[in-house]
Specification:
By secondary structure, the protein is mainly alpha-helical. The chain has a domain at about 55-325: Flavocytochrome C3, Chain A (Flavocytochrome C3, Chain A, domain 2, Orthogonal Bundle), CATH 1.10.1130.10. Helices cover about 50% and strands about 5% of the residues. The protein is built from 18 helices and six strands. It has helices at about 5-40, 55-60, 65-70, 90, 95-100, 120-125, 145-150, 155-160, 190-200, 210-215, 240-250, 275-280, 280-285, 290-295, 315-320, 330-365, 370-390, 400-430, and strands at about 225, 230-235, 255-260, 265, 295-300, 300-305. It has a two-stranded antiparallel ribbon. Strands 3-4 form a two-stranded antiparallel sheet. The radius of gyration is 26 Å and the shape is globular. Bound molecules: heme C (HEC) (4 copies). One heme C (HEC) binds near residues 83, 114, 118, 290 and 294.
């Protein structure tokens, strides 16, 4: 009992030492981080103009990012389902010819490749012609940001592609994702900002981790051209999942085209990479697009982001193994398993939709009226919108495996309902 005060002293001393140690550690960490940050920016900084579209000029300050950016022109792969090889999807997947009958995608539909090619490929596609609105160029070049500032978004979209976008010379580059003054990530394209605003999200409050997804989500999304002014709009007012997007389109009675074989009012889904990712385990765990597609690499003593944006399957070591301790073969195999499962059901969905198209066609030819066919056609629309949500998305299910199979399961169901409905009509018409 006599030495109790002494104990108290020791305890006090212990805590004091602990606090001092923690403080010193925090200080060191802080100094180290500052040093790291400081070395990201060269000591002699060549200022970059507010609307500098040329990545070479930015590259004088940031040679690593520029050099890796240039590698997006490389063709390293096909992977199992994607990669940078520009193949014709209509040849590899001939079902598409039936599914897109009457729409521009039946003429030309190639696999995507690196950002370096964005301009070459949009100018080269057979889907673009004299009547194409300028809206099409919105996600292909930093010159968009320059002209939007000059013309205003409305006039920019309203113009013709042949008059404005077709003359551009610079593919996607630094200005598309960075503020040239601070180098912070920045989104300037209005469609994304407006869609967030309508959903009550304030982008100025976004965390750095959210921005590592948002810069990609300004382009890698589903969209449509609103009204005669072809105003680029994201259909997110009711939410990001496929059912909410469908409800949005139904409410405004939007249709991309009438299918030429069965007359159904179809919506072409674009590339809902951001939307599908949002429903997956990685999004829920806070893993951003940049984590897998622009992983950190070590350059001397600093961590930098590779700007060679590509399929993570060609870079599993940096893209996945920072978080997962499985070996490369195992990780690759997990992706392949998810993709094979998705593809298996994707194909079954295509067959179900083609059966529906066929049944509606037959019912129509035997004299069923538009009014009678309305429901079967609407069910075809519902099935195809879901199928395309997964088919046009770029990860073959990987960005959100369970949601992908749920969507395809519902698509098969709607397609078969459509077929049954059309066959019932056919029987009734023929019997009469
Ligand atoms: C957990 C890692 C991970 C995250 C996070 C992720 N992706 Fe992916 N992504 C993949 C994998 C794996 C593939 C499949 C690549 C393949 O099949 O070659 C892929 C494929 C793609 C492709 C097609 C690549 C090609 O070769 O054609 C695009 C485009 C893409 N993702 C965009 C995005 C966007 C945009 C986000 C954020 C909204 C995102 N990804 C988030 C792992 C990820
Ligand atoms: C300004 C619009 C835009 C932005 C911003 C953008 N992308 Fe892309 N991305 C595209 C276009 C367009 C293509 C297709 C280019 C082609 O095929 O010519 C593409 C292609 C890709 C590919 C396929 C590459 C390959 O080798 O097959 C991946 C992966 C990808 N983007 C991921 C991302 C990620 C991750 C981000 C954010 C860090 C991002 N993109 C930001 C428009 C954009
Ligand atoms: C498609 C979007 C995109 C494009 C295009 C792009 N960047 Fe980045 N950049 C990013 C992302 C995402 C990060 C990671 C930022 C973070 O974590 O805060 C980044 C980080 C950086 C950094 C910080 C250091 C690092 O590597 O993490 C520098 C410097 C940089 N980029 C320079 C450039 C330059 C120069 C260009 C043009 C040659 C360019 N970027 C083009 C998306 C892009
Ligand atoms: C920044 C960290 C991070 C990166 C990078 C990352 N993952 Fe993950 N991954 C996670 C987390 C967190 C989970 C959820 C695990 C959990 O909560 O148990 C996960 C889950 C998974 C799962 C299980 C999915 C499921 O439905 O249960 C697979 C498979 C997977 N990741 C593969 C990959 C592959 C392949 C890559 C590279 C293309 C990758 N991950 C990149 C963090 C990451």
């Amino acid at each position: 009992m006599a030495n109790q005060p002494l104990n108290k002293k020791y305890i006090l001393l212990f805590f004091l030492t602990a606090i001092v140690t923690v403080a010193i550690t925090l200080l060191l960490v802080n100094i180290f981080e500052k040093k790291q940050e400081a070395t990201l920016y060269p000591s002699v900084f060549k200022p970059v103009g507010e609307f500098e579209i040329d990545p070479k000029v930015w590259g004088q300050n940031f040679p690593f990012e520029y050099d890796t950016y240039l590698q997006t022109q490389n063709d390293t792969s096909p992977t199992f389902y994607h990669g940078s090889k520009k193949f014709q999807k209509l040849e590899k997947y001939p079902n598409l010819l039936t599914l897109f009958a009457g729409y521009a995608f039946e003429k030309d539909y190639t696999e995507d490749r690196g950002h370096y090619w964005s301009l070459t490929d949009v100018k080269g596609t057979l889907r673009v012609n004299e009547k194409t609105p300028n809206t099409c160029i919105t996600c292909k070049s930093p010159q968009v940001l320059v002209d939007m500032e000059k013309m205003g978004p409305e006039n920019f979209y309203k113009a013709m592609f042949k008059d404005v976008g077709a003359n551009y010379t610079q593919a996607i580059a630094c200005l598309d994702c960075h503020d040239p003054k601070t180098m912070e990530l920045r989104v300037k394209r209005p469609a994304f900002l407006e869609a967030l605003q309508r959903r009550g999200i304030d982008i100025t409050k976004a965390t750095r981790q959210e921005m590592r997804t948002y810069v990609c989500a300004q382009c890698h999304v589903e969209y449509y051209f609103k009204g005669d002014g072809k105003y680029l709009t994201f259909p997110w007012d009711k939410g990001l999942n496929v059912d909410s997007i469908e409800a949005y389109y139904d409410q405004i009675a939007f249709t991309d085209w009438a299918h030429t074989v069965d007359g159904a009012p179809i919506i072409k889904m674009q590339h809902p990479d951001y939307e599908l990712w949002s429903s997956g385990i990685h999004a829920k765990s806070g893993v951003s697009c940049a984590d897998c597609h622009m992983p950190y690499e070590r350059e001397g003593s600093v961590k930098v982001s590779t700007h060679w944006i590509r399929s993570p399957l060609t870079n599993v070591n940096n893209a996945c193994q920072t978080c997962h301790k499985w070996d490369e073969a195992e990780l690759t195999n997990r992706v392949k398993t998810i993709q094979d499962r998705t593809y298996e059901i994707l194909l079954k969905t295509e067959i179900a939709i083609m059966d529906a198209i066929n049944a509606i066609k037959k019912a129509k030819e035997s004299g069923a009226t538009d009014e009678q066919l309305k429901n079967a056609r609407y069910l075809h629309r519902r099935a195809q919108l879901r199928w395309d949500f997964i088919a046009a998305e770029n990860s073959m299910g990987f960005h959100s495996p369970q949601e992908s199979l749920r969507i395809l399961g519902n698509a098969v169901d709607y397609a078969r309902q459509s077929q049954i409905e059309a066959e019932r009509l056919l029987k009734n018409v023929v019997m009469k």
